[in-house]
Design a protein that fits this description.
Layout lengths: L1 H21 L13 H5 L4 H51 L4 H21 L5
């Protein structure tokens, strides 16, 4: 019984959708009222919102955020980190000479530094 009811509901829905959307009978024109232009333009809410909120926000974003924040803070920070990385790489470049004896010396110096740190802080543990 439930399957018959559901099939009947689907058939009625299909028939109504066919009548409304595929066959499209001519609908009589709606009578014009005093508020039809107001309702057709959705009370001009979108235009008012665009003029009061969106345009000033876009202008502020283009002038203040793109000008001061983007070029001053973000690009300035990027340039500063680039200079720091360049200075650090110049120091590391001198260490990496390709000389095996130099590398062995750096390894010995590092091991001595680790040993001194461990001996110095051994009393804390």
């Amino acid at each position: 019984m439930l399957s018959v009811v559901s099939m009947l509901a689907a058939a009625i829905g299909w028939f109504l959708a066919d009548q409304k959307y595929r066959r499209k009978p001519l609908a009589p024109e709606e009578p014009k009222s005093a508020f039809s232009d107001l309702v057709a333009h959705k009370y001009w809410i979108d235009e008012l919102y665009g003029a009061v909120v969106v345009r000033p926000l876009l202008a502020f974003s283009r002038v203040a955020l793109a000008g001061a924040v983007e070029s001053g803070i973000i690009d300035g920070t990027n340039r500063a980190w680039t200079r720091i990385a360049g200075a650090g790489s110049n120091g590391v470049r001198r260490i990496q000479s390709g000389n095996i004896r130099s590398y062995a010396g750096w390894l010995a110096a590092g091991a001595a530094a680790v040993l001194l740190i461990v001996l110095y802080f051994a009393h804390l543990y």
